[in-house]
Amino acid sequence: MQRALALAEKGRFTTHPNPRVGCVIAQGSHIVGEGYHLRCGEPHAEIFALKEAKRKAKGATVYVTLEPCAHFGKTPPCAEALIQAGIARVIVATQDPNPQVAGKGIAMLQEAGIKVSCGLLEKEARALNLGFLSRFEKNRPYIRLKYAQSLDGKIALNNGQSQWITGEVARADVHRYRAQSSAILTGVNTILADNPLLNARIDDIALFRQPERIILDSHLRTPLDAQVITDETCHTVLVTLEDTPHKDYPQHIEIMRIPANTDGKIDLSILMTVLAQRGVNEIWTEAGSVLNSALLQEHLVDEIVVYQAPMILGNTAKDIFRLPEYTDLTQIPRWGLSSVKKMGDDIRIILRHAESIQAA
Q: Measured between alpha carbons, how far is residue 341 from residues 83, 181, 251 in Å?
């Protein structure tokens, strides 16, 4: 199963909106076939493994990181292919929460007389697909909130200058996170202040897909000459309110209209539900204090990725959050420390919400 997980990892940058899945077929302790899912619409991991194993699949044991599918989608059901190959036993790391599968794949195998067990290295398997699992279990994408800060917790000088707080190693790491995400989320204030490109630029990965850009823009203030509008390497979605007057953007720009919440702003919970329905698994957020604070207050953040630089910006510099005053420490949400890693002269700190830690 560890080998199957390593294979699944090979699809980290390409499988969206599908999950990352690896499969190993073994006769005793000898591997006779293995495979992994590469991209949506192409064969699943089990099919590649069966193709490699050929006749040696008969009577063999299959180790697969996610429950084999039992339905006809863009590809035939993998459970049926395993049955036809004469597999004797299937060991599954974790069940598939997709209602089209959700236990049906395991049931199909068992009805055919194949022994099935589930739960081997389940935590590790779930960690590979936090976004896919969140989309079905929570009806929203898995949301990572990223920011770079100084030692005194500031993200920019008082005049807005922030390029660059962190060094090249940390910035390269950000691009890898972008590449594995379904979408990059930001607000129009960030577009107006920095005019970012917001795509993934990586030299050491041969194959990856560009995430789509999602820009929250209640009044369609994004300029026509902004890089996110003129650059077509990524699909760009401008999210605005239902009653915002129309504005002519190029045809390749999608306008998504979302109802307002009680404060007259874009309802983030509704937006996340819509994005989940569109197949968005993981969202990488690079925004300012307004959107970051709103996501936290709506309890929509699963993971915080902080890049901390060895510099002090001073008390007039800008803060990352604008949250209401707390009067009791028991009111403050707790975050669990997931990892700390040195990145050049900077440090990357990953924090996960308590519920997200349990899910992983």
A: 45, 20, 42
Each residue's pLDDT tens digit, 199-234: 998 887 778 889 999 999 999 999 999 999 999 989
Of 224, 260, 254, whose CA–CA distance to 238 is shortest? 254
What does the longest C-alpha to C-alpha distance in the chain come to? 70
Peptide bond connecting 99 to the previous residue in cis, omega within 30 degrees of 0: no
- Beta pairing, strands 61-66 & 30-36: unpaired
Phi-psi label, residue 302: left if phi above 0, alpha if psi -120 to 50, beta otherwise: alpha
SS3 label, residue 338: strand
Please name which of 232, 226, 161 lies closest in space to residue 199, comparing C-alpha atoms: 232
| Catalytic-labelled residue, pool 46, 80, 282, 303 | 46
pTM given for the model: 0.90
**Nearest C-alpha neighbor of 118 from the set 135, 106, 108, 136:** 106
What DSSP string describes 66-128? EPPP-S-SSS--HHHHHHHTT--EEEEEE---STTTTTHHHHHHHHTT-EEEE-TTHHHHHHH
Catalytic annotation present for 122: no
For residue 321, what are the CA distances in angstroms to 149, 263, 340? 12, 18, 21
